[in-house]
Amino acid sequence: MNYRSRLFVVLSLVFASLVIGTPKVSATTQIFYESFTNGWTPGTQWTFASPTTYQPRIFDEPTQTPRYALRLTSTATKVSGGLIFNRPIPISAGLDVSFTFSQWGGTGADGLSFFLQKGTETSSALPAGGTLGYSADRNQTPNLNGLRNGLIGIGLDMFGNYSSPNFDGTGCPSIANRPTTNPNALVIRGPGHLMAGYCIIGSLKNTTTNWASGTSSRSGRAKAIRIVVDPNTASTPKINVWICAANTTCSIAGTPNLSVNAPAALLNEPTVRFGFAAATGGVTNRHEVWDLTVRSQNVFPPVVITTQTLPNGGIGTAYSASVAANGIAPYTFAVASGTLPPGLSLNALTGEITGTPTTAGTYNFTIETTDSRVVGETGRTATQPYTVTIGGALCTVTYDEAGGSAVANTDFLQPGTVTLPAAPTRAGYSFLGWFTAATGGSPLTSPHTPSGCNVELIARWALLYNVTYEERGGTAVADATFISGGTVTLPPAPTRAGFTFTGWFTAPDGGTQYGSTATPPNGDVTIYAQWLPYTVTYEERGGTSVSDTTFNCPTTCDTITLPPAPTRAGYVFEGWYTEPTGGTRYGATYVPTAKDQVIYAQWTPYEVSFNTQGGTSVAGYIIGSNATITLPPAPTRAGFTFNGWYTTPTGGSPVGSTYGPHTGDLEFYAQWSPVLHNVTYQEYGGTAVPDATFVSGGTVTLPADPTRAGYTFDGWFTAQTGGTMYNTTFSPPDGNLVVHAQWTQNPFTVTYEEHGGTTVSDSEFVSGGTITLPSRPTRAGYTFDGWFTAQTGGTKYGSTSSPPDGNLVVHAQWTQVSANTVFTVTYEEHGGTTVSNATFVSGGTVTLPAAPTRAGYTFDGWFTEQTDGTRFNSTFSPADENVVVHAQWTQIPFTVSFEEHGGTAVPDSTFVSGGTLALPAEPTRAGYTFNGWFTAQTGGTKYGSIASPPDGNLVVHAQWTAVAVVSGPSSAPTTTVPLPPATVSAAEIVAPTKVVTPRKSLPQTGTNMETFVSAALLLLLLGVITMNSGRLRTRKIR
């Protein structure tokens, strides 16, 4: 059994142990349950053990709990009994037994045991006395015999005999912690047969085994026992025993009270029988059992009747047949339905059907077999239907062999069929079949149904003639025979080294060739093979004729010498080949294979080709022998001059306009001289660079860099300025080339000497360039006079100057001021309200005035410049000089509100003073055509797509024209009648005199009269629209 099967069994047992409150049968486990209650009898399942000093029975104790139990001993001394369940139970997949027992009402005599023996055992003999049905009691002769074919015994020992070492079997190992003669022990013995090997293999004595009798109560010392034979334990198969409270099923979830290795003898048995035995010895006691449950995994397939059919019979003829089955032996057989043929009977134990039929007919009946598995177990019975025909009188078929070998007569029942015998033999003849008459008719087929009771069948024969094959040197062909008037099928062609088989003929040479079959005249016949040598056929393919040849292959084939080359005008002979094109070329000689050969000439026409060596292509052509070749016009090649056609790629002499006469392939070569192109270098003030040349398709390597005072060389370019820089080596296009030098002027340094003023960064300029002087530095107590050519005196520079080439030093000059010198602060408002100028003294501070205002603008602050510059702090310390402070402004945008008047929403917009307004995309309104954006809701002036409105917030109105709807059956189209739009110029736009309140906010809580007026106007507008819609629907457009 594999791992999965074992796991399945264990899980089934565990599940059964958890749910066994009431006995039940699962789909995977067969369960036998016996309560041993009132009305129990042994029936056919139980057998009383022998000798029968006492037969176990149900005892009714009305004052005890439970009231009924199976008692194994009486109240007399030395009286005991046993009980065996006589049906085999599967064990190989495990066994699980539970019961409750009690030993009470006496003086503690001996005890009781549960035992297992081989399932094939049929004896009911148990040892008597204090052996508890299993151990061989050496000390109490003549009670030396134990249980026959016993496998295991589990003793619930009260007195100590069962657990005593003196009662051990032969050849037993020593067991640690074995109870001696003390009472109240759980002991496992086994295995063995009779006395030998009846060994104690495990024992237990503790408070759980305190079942000594000393009580007058059935339930006082009662215990529940659960015994599990588990072959699926991970390491070694086990026998586990649990002890628990009476009238319960012990849980197997915990550790067993006693566990031993299961003996191999137990695990090797497919089935077991089980039973109980008890002993009283010289004292009295009651040993009782109730609530027995046996669980066994079903490891056997259902019983199957293997005999599928039964033979037929005849009246008055002895009949014998057997019905066989596969299952758990022994079996019983019975007729489940229908009837056997009269005169036949079924043996219920062997399944044999015997007797002598008395009545003809066809009989249908069903046989049922029952095997020896547990009563109620699935698969215990099987049935098989049969049909048996009983025939009439016994008849005989005799055979007339007509000169052939003897054939035994055949008996059959009338009516019935006969299987025809194997064909007899007769020298010189062929058997044609069995017939009902000597002439005429057709051969009979098997099985044959005779027309009468005793009949004769006659053999017919035909004369045989011999066919002899003359291979005449070929491989052997077996001779044959044919019957008079019959046909001969000729054999496959023989083979003969060096020859080709041409067929089977009536004569060695000449004669008539046979087909694949022949009908020779009656009499022996000889058939001849005819042969031809192998042929070599030459396919000249347009060449001069070549004669074919033959060859033989007696052991190896003859060597063939190929003929001289044929000729063909305008072609070159390439050789003899295995194929017309391609294939393999033959040498001067070759050894063929043993079959006809075809050899092919291959040809190549003379070809004139032209190799232009880089020039334009010139096509070749085919010529014949002794041809004069006219040379084609000169090809061309960019950058080269054509020198002529030559017969060699280089050197040699040019060919004239014609060449020849010539026979054979020929190739002409174009030869060329390269064209030179000039490279001119433009140095632009740099040192001179010699010009160069390059050939067409060639490369140019640039010269060493030139030099130029005051400049850095940037490289050679395709143009004087810009262009693309050349690599050191490049491939120019054909034609003369000009290469330009490009330079970068070296800059001059401008150094600023501040002479005590704040630091000014130095700068650079290039030859011919200008310099822009930096912002003025500052110096405490001094006024900056300007930038000069010298520290004192010199010439003052303007804000920009064009100095001569060379590095330059520019000097700051200063005028010292007294502490009380006053300087002016001039405010440039740039359109804002006027701000008074101010003054400050040398080293003093300036506090800026309040911000000016400017309509339409936001004041950004006071700055050093009108735009950009640096913003002044509210108080700052200027340099000792006059200061100009500039106001800077940001224009405030105006709001443009779009009134859609029922159209789709248009987002509002803004514009700045003097700016333009781009009108949005047209809104839409169901049932209306958009007329444009206007200065008023009605009338007013229409805006163009871009407008330049005056300063101020602006409201722009959408105007609409309702679409007229035509009613009635007319299919005239819908007509819109727009108002003529007006166009307004920017000059005509007048800003509204009323500040527009945003109209897109929801009404606010507390809105008074304006809300009601607005609501009234809205209702009035809806009424007008409704009236107009009604008019439009009834208006007829003409």
How is this structure best described in words?
The protein has 1038 residues and is mainly β. The longest helix has 26 residues. The protein folds into ten domains: 295 residues, Jelly Rolls (Sandwich); 88 residues, Immunoglobulin-like, CATH 2.60.40; 70 residues, Listeria-Bacteroides repeat domain (Immunoglobulin-like, Sandwich), CATH 2.60.40.4270; 66 residues, Listeria-Bacteroides repeat domain (Immunoglobulin-like, Sandwich); 72 residues, Listeria-Bacteroides repeat domain (Immunoglobulin-like, Sandwich), CATH 2.60.40; 63 residues, Immunoglobulin-like; 70 residues, Listeria-Bacteroides repeat domain (Immunoglobulin-like, Sandwich); 69 residues, Listeria-Bacteroides repeat domain (Immunoglobulin-like); and more. The two termini are 104 Å apart. The protein contains three helices and 68 strands. A hairpin with a 5-residue loop joins strand 21 and strand 22. The protein is 5% helix and 38% strand. The N terminus and C terminus are likely disordered. Strands 25, 26, 27, 28, 29, 31, 33, 34, 36, 38, 39, 41 and 43 form a 13-stranded mixed β-sheet that branches. One of its GO terms (cellular component) is membrane. It is found in: Cell envelope. GO terms for molecular function: calcium ion binding. It holds the Pfam family Flg_new.
